[in-house]
Amino acid sequence: MGDFHQNGKVATLHHFPTASAENMERILETYAQNRKITLILPSLFSELEQPALSNILDELSKAKFINQIVIGLDRANEEQYRHAKQYFARLPQDHVVLWNDGPRLKAIDERLQTLGLSPSEPGKGRNVWYCMGYVLSAKNSDVVALHDCDIVTYNKEMLARLVYPVANPNFSYQFCKGFYPRIADGKLNGRVTRLFITPLLLALRKLIGNNEYLEYLQAFRYPLAGEFAMRTYMLPDMRIPSDWGLEIGVLSEVHRNFSSKAVCQVEIADIYDHKHQPLSEEDATTGLSRMSTDIAKALYRKLAIDGIIFSSEFFRTLKATYLRMSLDMVETYYNDAMMNGLHTDRHMEERSCELFAANIVEAGSAYMDNPMEVPFIPNWSRVSAADYDLLLDFYNAVKQDNEEYGVA
Hints:
With 408 residues, the chain is α/β, with parallel strands linked by helices. It has 14 helices and 10 strands. The strands form 2 sheets. Strands 1-10-6-9-5-2-3-4 form an 8-stranded mixed beta sheet, with helices on both faces. A two-stranded antiparallel sheet has the order 7-8. The model has no long low-confidence stretch (mean pLDDT 93). It comes from Cohaesibacter marisflavi. InterPro entries: Nucleotide-diphossugar_trans.
């Protein structure tokens, strides 16, 4: 059961056990007659081999309020794309699978490369960006939502609660972020949120002082949640990172373009679990190590845009301040877990904090050493200005793929 707390910056919509999920879905079906709802699912082919996605599709098949589902498929050859088409065919809603590695979409990407507008690196951000482009090209969406394909505890009520605030015409919200507790197998999860982003934001505010952007990020109960929904008209001006900074990047763009009165967060689940990334202490290019570095760089870039000047001394001080605060939080989360019959591995939690602290400086060095880096994928408004026909050609390429490789 949620509490009543409001932070005063971003509206928090709680999950009280007083409303019927079925009634909410019926209301959404009514709203969806005038506000068409699209769901984006960024997926690796490997996720089709896991039970989590199969359950997600079973639940989505019962979500009558969804008008269209756009699946971005990465790392798939032709045989795997054909398999994916059959795999997703169980969805009763209108749906389309973007074969990002297919020859037609590669040709679209090459066109973007000649203009200097192609996403610079593969990853979730690139996948989501192309899905956003397709949604714009299809011109049949008013609300767009996104969530991952590895949610083990998924049910359709999560999606209903996520889209309701922006689908309801009586609400003024244009963007909604999901939040939830990360609990599974008798322990607290969500290490990057608990032990990295939360103490890092506290440390940054301690060093920088009052800062509207940092205050805004701190208002979110789970800023790294991969579940969010927004009005579709926002997509053309959305500039997002292609790396693990996607979630922070999206929040930053919303902060730049909209009043906080147009933003809310909603509790979408009592328990939430998905695929766990390894800490990856030995390889900084993968796992939580890579994730923390990318997130830190995304924060530094945004703060620099706001006029904050960084130096090597600043990052060393930030590391020390962060480490003390994060280690204190290890104790707090341990106590919280014990009170609720859960556990945390305090040794591994402290090792995580030490790794994250080192990555704060590493991310700072990378930021300082490469001042000419272009961190965001160009928005779709710029793409359309540079190549007016590209969105239409993109739409037709996806359509041709889905027809040529359709289910027999």
